[in-house]
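cron nightly-structures :: item 1 of 1
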Amino acid sequence: MGLLSLGTPLPWDQAKGLASEVRKHGIEQFLHIWRNMKDRQKDSLLWGDEIEYMLVSLDRANRRARLSQRGHELLSILQIDENEKLERAKQTGEKPELEALWRPEFGRYMIEGTPGHPYNSTVHELANVEANMKRRREIVTSLMNNDEVLLSVGSYPTLGSGDFLIPPHKANGQFSRSLFLPDEVINPHPRFRTLAGNIRERRGSKVAINMPIFHDINTPRHFIDPTIPLDRNLFPGDKEASEGAALPDHIYMDAMGFGMGCCCLQITLQAPDVDKARRLYDQLATVGAVLMSLSAASPIFRGYLADVDCRWNVIAGAVDDRTAEERGEKPLSKSRFVIPKSRYGTIDTFLGSSDGHFKPEYNDLKLAYDHAIYEHLVQNDIDDLMAKHISHLFIRDPLVIFEELLDQDDSVTTDHFENIQSTNWQNVRFKPPPPNSPIGWRVEFRPLEVQLTDYENAAFAVFTILLARALLAFGDIDLYIPVTKMDINMERAHSRDAVLKEKFFFRRSYAAAEDDDKVSFSSRDGEGDGVVEMTANDIVNGSSDFVGLVPIVEMYLDTVDMDTCVREKIDRYIMFIRGRANGSIMTLAAWMRDYVRSHPAYNFDSVVLPEINYDLVVSLDDIACGRRSAPELTGKQ
């Protein structure tokens, strides 16, 4: 969830006047990092994953499944143990014995778990990832009540619909002012409620999220959601739904919690140096949409089947703090820029690196950036592409400012920089080293949907890391496509069964030579810019236009010495990825939609009734815990 600080968060009417000051000091903090760390070299390829979970309470007698606010309680217990071990290690000078680290997320029912220590750079370590993920699940499960289950799913099917929360609360909170979500779903950390309130205040209205309804046999063709309380008159924004915010034939959601209450799988990897981090940032950005389509896991929102499979656009809408002027709906007057996208979206500009593949025409999106900040960065020896990147991030306002953290020494802290950097939620994130830390230049890969089982999550994590290492090992691989085509890919990746039905823009290339254990690649430009439309299967498994991401990974693995058992385990993960791409293994989104449509209580009207949701949650938990086999979802393990 980004930067978490303790203190007194300022409401928007106080915070907005301090935005320029925070930006000014944030830039100075970045420059201090750059001067001190730009020549850092030969860092190990350490990495880690983040998995977010939901705690669900089962009422077996009445067949109801509700999100449990005890998630925050369990998190507090987990962090007590973690902090005790860290304090003991500090006193003894020994390395802390941590199996996992635990962090809060936006939802009070959510828990984020990461490995206790980064995974090392060896291929053999990849065989330990699944076991670590299983252990994290076991640790949380050991603290749960008998009526609770732990799910790793993208979106909770009935979030904001009827009796979905325990203890129950009315949707009348001051921070979200949602028609559907009470503020009690929000984690009590002071940052989160302020974030929800300040996004709404800055925007000048509630967020308006509309996901297309899945039109089933009995779904009205001009679907108007009858559950929206259009007559509520508690807050000024209550009338927005009836004035056009709620679109026909769509599932309407009106609060940050609908997006940031979703779960994900994220991977952060350390590069050897800043140049390699820039290469990974650019190249991984181009594959994000395709891999997201393989991981699709979010087909239900607010109790309705949606005609999308992923949560990405829900989150983008949930944190869209742009004013009407910034959205281009009114002429600029009080705002500084017209901004094409939400703070949550695909990257808007590539960084370039020494690999020689970047061309200026790939940055084909008209970029909004702060020209004064850009000039200041260039005057301080920041190259053009990096200066554009940073000055683009800094067109945004800081959303949460802690009163106690206003005055900082820019040479020893990065809180102001991270305040803005961490609330630009893009498909990849370029992460400078923290001050006074052994941590190096990193890239965070963000588009993956969290998977139901630890096996699936391990497969996606391991494949992503192997692809990243292959991109570093084979420097002649060029996956650049224009930014605007990457945006199109991301939209296509949302659609129902996109992994099977959509085509994605991708660069044509092929293996040119494989000699003396050396593999080389070259672009086959052909017509235009060498970018053509391919299916996910073509991109992942290979075709006449592209060698394939899986073959690239396998070529890389062939250059690495490893035990047979390790290679066999990795090969199983790769076969799973192959299966998702060619359709022989279902996505969780497709599985969930099929489950609902085959349920005896389903009326083919797109409505996921409470008893359907209960049976769905029980079935998902049975699969996640190994009590039910689902080879159609996970493949042969």
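cron nightly-structures :: done
The first helix runs from residue 12 to 15.
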